[in-house]
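Final report, Chapter 2: Outcomes

The project's central promise was a pipeline that accepts a single protein chain and returns its three-dimensional structure in a standardized token representation, suitable for archiving and comparison. That pipeline is now operational. To close this chapter, we reproduce one record exactly as it appears in the project archive, with the input sequence first and the structure output second.
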Amino acid sequence: MANNLQTTPEEELFTGGHGGCRGCGAAIATRQALKALGSRTMVVIPASCMATIGGSGLTTAWEVPFYHTLFECSAAVASGIRAALDIRGIGDIAAISWAGDAGTADIGFQSLSGAAERGEDIIHVCYDNEAYMNTGGQAGGLTPGLARTTDTPSGKPTRKKDLLAIMAAHQPAYLATASVAYPEDLMAKFQKAREIKGFRYIHILAPCYRGWKIPAARTVEFARLAVESGLWELYEMVDGQKKITCRPERRIPAGDYLRPQGRFQGFAEEEILALYHN
């Protein structure tokens, strides 16, 4: 399997021609992850950006089977698929629930928590663009404090939910953070997660340029700045043991990441940081 860009498979399992915006962080994350997971993969997607941009009707960008389900139950449906595969004796297909902010941290959390508590043999992925981008960019549990959204035009008054701590409390077999700006790290984590049995959780920072109010061409750059500023840490946890997996080559002030984002316009750096951190 691929652990670096030189040995990354050329096969595309999430192809061009999808309906995502230019520079869509979610589409980049999907492409990278599927290169690591391979074709023996089945994906469950609740209502979200990825449920629409991958295609519908007679066209699709997906080269693996995917099932579009309701907001509330992607982890439950993935668990059912895993059970059905096991009954048929098919053990080499990875069952993935792939959800955005709402389908992970808020509307879909009850089924996610249940699957994690039961130790279901699935991988749940949260592609985190920090708002409900598919329905207009409303604030949600994973939206940072003071971020301006369509329903918090004066800035979100509460902090970003510490979902990683919540998921770690479920004691998953594997937990990891990832970023679309660090594809080698991201793919290595999906490869590792694929080989582990039990419930696994991967949380990807996947900027949305429209919601973050940044240039479309700078999506990956801002994902990298988040890591370089120390506001997004790349690590993994196996059986509760945390390990940093990728350290940035440089360190930058947090303001270099926050100030250029239009969603924080008008707020001082210290104001943002006071609500941004968990």
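Archive annotation: The chain has a mean pLDDT of 93.
This record, like all others produced under the grant, will remain available to the consortium after the project formally closes.
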